[in-house]
Amino acid sequence: KDSPGMYLPPATHWRVYLELADLAKRSNEIDASRQYYRRACQIQSNASQCWLEYSKLEEESGNLKRCAEILEEGLQHCSTNENLLVRALKFYERTGHLDQSRQLLARLKDSSIEKSWKTILEGAQMEARAGRYSIAREWLKYLTHHVPWYGPLYKIHSEFERDYGDPVEAFAIVEKGLKELPRYGPLYLVAFRLLEKDDLSRKAYDLPKTMDMVSRADNISRELLWRVHFEAAQSQERAAVLLMGEKPKLSLKKALYATRRSYSKAIMLSPPNLVWKIWLASGRTEVSSGNTNGARDLFLRAYDCVTEKGRSTVLLECARLEEFCGDLALSRSILCKARNEHGKSDWKVWLSSVNLECRCGLRERAIVFAQDALDIHRGTGRLWAALIQLRHEDGEMSQMKVLKLALKSVPKSGEVWCEGARIALNPFCPTFDLQAASRHLVFAARFTPQYGDSFLEQLRLDMIGKWLVPLAEPFIKNMYDTFLKSKKMEREEAYQFITQCTKKAADAMKAQFKRKPNSIAKDVVDTSELELHCCSANPNYGHLWFQCRVSPIDSAREVIAEAKDIMTTDIINYSYAYVAAMVRRAGIMMIIHHPDIVDSNGNENPYSNDVDFDRIVNQQLRLAPTLDVILSDKEVSGSMFVTGLTGSNKKWNTYSLAEKRRILFGSDSLVN
Predict the structure, then answer these.
(1) 157-161, 185-189, 567-571, 659-663, range with the lowest pLDDT
(2) 444: how many CB neighbours lie within 10 A of its CB?
(3) With contact defined as beta carbons under 8 Å apart, do 58 and 66 qualify?
(4) Does pLDDT of 616 surpass 90?
(5) Angle at 285 between CA 279 and CA 289, to 5 degrees
(6) Which of 559, 357, 360 is nearest to 453 (CA)?
(7) What are the distances in angstroms from CA 632 to CA 225, 475, 503?
(8) Percent of the chain with pLDDT over 90
(9) 629 vs 296: CA distance, rounded Å
(10) Which residue in 557, 568, 379, 384 sits closest to 467, CA to CA?
C-alpha cells in the first residue's frame, strides 16, 4: 500500500502469504513459514492449498499431532476436496492410523461418485497395501464399473490382480479397459507383460499371444506406437535367449531375426528425440549375441542423434561396452570425457567410474572418485552408499564415520540406511547387531521404497531371526549359566571365556551342517508381510535386486521367491558365522550387565544417565576379540558379507562372460 502505483486486492492476499511461507521454508525459517501459512488459512479458509501446504510443513518438521489437527481443521472447511482427503488418507496410513483413514472414507457414502472416485481409488490402494485384498478388489471393481472412462484405473486394477497372483483376472481387466478405451497405450504395455509370461510358461517361444496383442495395438496414437514395437523387440529377445538355451545348435542370427525387425519398426516410428534409446537397446541385443562390433556401431549412431540431456547415458553405455570387451584404457577415457562434460549435472558418470575401478580391484582410486563426486553431488545417496562399501577394508569404525556423514547430508536416503543395516548384519563386524539392522531397514524402506535391496536385506534378517537365533539361544544360555557361577575375573579372562564359548558354538554349527544341513532351515519363513510391502512399493533397482531378478518382467513376489532360494543356501552354509557372532555379542553384553563379576578397568558404565548406552556398548564390542580372530578361518572373511549374497561380493575376474554382461548391461532400463 505504501508503494505508489501498487495495489493488491484483498482477495489475493492469501496467495501472497502462501508465497512468503514457501520462501521462508526454503530459507529454513520454519517459525516464520508457520506464521505465514497460519495467516493464509485464516484469510482464505476455503482454499485447500493453504491447509495442504501447512500440514506438509508440520509433518516434515516432525510435528505429526499438529499435522493431524491441521488436516482435520482443513476438512471442516473443505469437506469434499479430494486433494485434501487423499492427503489425509496417506498421512494416517503412514502413521499407522488406518481406522482414521477408514472413518474419512466413510464420510463419502452419501457423496456422488463424480466427486469422490479419486478418494475411493486411494482408499482401495490403501486397503491393498494393508493386505485386505477382498475389500480392495471390490472397491476397484466398483470404480471400473462407474468410472469406465479413466484409463489409469484399469492399469492399477490389472496390476493389483497380477501382483496378488491372478494373471487371468488381470488380463480380463485389461481386455475390459481396451474395450472401453481402445487407444489407451499403457494398457497394451501391461497386456504385453501378462501375455509374454503366459507364452513363455507354455514354452511358446514365438510368442503367439503377445504378438497378436502387438498387432491389435496398431490403432493407438503414433506417439506411442514406437513403444509398442520396442516392447515387442524386448520380449522377442528374451524368448530367443530361452530358446537358445534349449536348442544351442540353433542359428543365433535366425533366433534374433524377429527382434531386429521389431527394433527397425520402432526406429522408423520413433520421435527424433527418442530414437537414440532404441539404438542403444538394439546395441545391447548385439552384445548379447556376441556381435560387439555391431553393438559399437549402433552406440555410435545413438551418440550422433542423442539430445544433450541423454548424451551422458550414451557415453556410459559405450564405456561399459569397452570394459566388456576388455579395453579398460578406452573405457576409462570415455568415462573421463563423460565426467568432464557432464560431471556437474549427472552423478551417474561418477558412479560408473567408481564401479569400474571397484571391478578392477583399484579400491583407492574408486574412493578418490567417490569423494570427488560427493564434492559436487553431496545429496546423492547412491554415491554415499558406494563410499560406505568401499570403506569396508578400512574397518567398521571407518564405515561408521562415513555413514554418519552420509546421514547428515542425505537423512532420507534409503540406500544409505540400507548400508547401515548391512554393516550391522555382517557377522564379522565387531558391532554385529540384528536389532540395529532392523531399525535401519525400516527407515530404508520408508524413505526409498523403490530401492529393492532394502527388502532383500530384510528377507535375510527375517531368515536369520527364524532359523539361527533359536539355534544360538542354547549356546548363549549355557554361557550365561557358567559365567554367573564364576568368581570375580579380570577382563582378559572374560574375553578368553567368551572366545571359548564362541568357538564352541561355531564348531557345533559346522558339525550340524555336515551331519544334517537341512535341519538348520527346517522351519518355514513367512514372507507374506514382506511380499505385501514389496508389491506395494514396486522396487525397480538395486545391485542385489538385479542379482535376484531372473527377468525384467518378474514381479516383486517372484524376485523375493528367487532371493529366498539363493539366500537359504548362503545362510545355511555360513550359519556357524552368524551364530558365533550372536554368541560373541551376547558375551560382551554379559560383561556389561555384570560389572560385579568382571573388572571394568575404568570403562564407562553404560547404565549411567549421563552417557549414551549404544555408544558405550559399541565401544566395548570393538575392544573385544573380533570374530575373524576367534574363528581363524582363512576361507571366510567379512568382505564376503558386504551385501546379502556372498556370491555377489566375489572378484570380477571370477565371473563368467554371461554374468559380466548381465551386471554391466542388465541393470538400468533405457525406457522409463
Answers:
(1) 659-663
(2) 26
(3) yes
(4) no
(5) 140
(6) 559
(7) 62, 20, 10
(8) 76
(9) 49
(10) 568
| Residue with the three cell numbers 522396487 | 539
Angle between helices 13-26 and 48-60 (to 10 degrees): 20
Residue 593 has a pLDDT of 85
To 5 degrees, how large is the angle CA 259–CA 264–CA 270? Answer: 120
Closest alpha carbon to 310 in 276, 340, 336: 276
Q: What own/partner pairs with CB < 8 Å and gap ≥ 24 does 61-67 have?
A: 61/30, 64/95, 67/91
* Band of pLDDT at residue 1, cut at 50, 70 and 90: very low
* Residue 570: all three cell numbers together: 548362503
Closest C-alpha to 580, from 456, 366, 429 = 429
Cα 378 versus chain centre, distance: 20
pTM listed for this prediction: 0.90
Tell me the per-residue pLDDT of 412-423, one tens digit each, with 9 for 90 and over. Answer: 999 999 999 999
Q: What is the largest CA-CA distance in the chain?
A: 92
Q: Which residues contact 247 (CB under 8 A, 6 or more apart)?
A: none
- C-alpha dihedral over 342, 348, 354, 357, to 10 degrees? -80
Termini Cα distance of the chain: 50
Query: Does residue 256 sit in helix, strand or coil?
Result: coil
**Helix, strand or coil, per DSSP, at residue 450:** coil
pLDDT in tens, 476-520: 999 999 998 888 888 899 999 999 999 999 999 999 999 888 888
Cα separation, 658 vs 672, whole angstroms: 25
> Helical H runs in 410-517?
414-425, 434-447, 452-463, 469-484, 491-515
86 to 80, 101, 110: CA distances (angstroms): 11, 9, 17
Q: How confident is the model at residue 209 (pLDDT cuts 50, 70, 90)?
A: very high
Q: What nine digits make up the cell of 339?
A: 565426467
Q: Which three cell numbers stand for residue 457?
A: 536385506
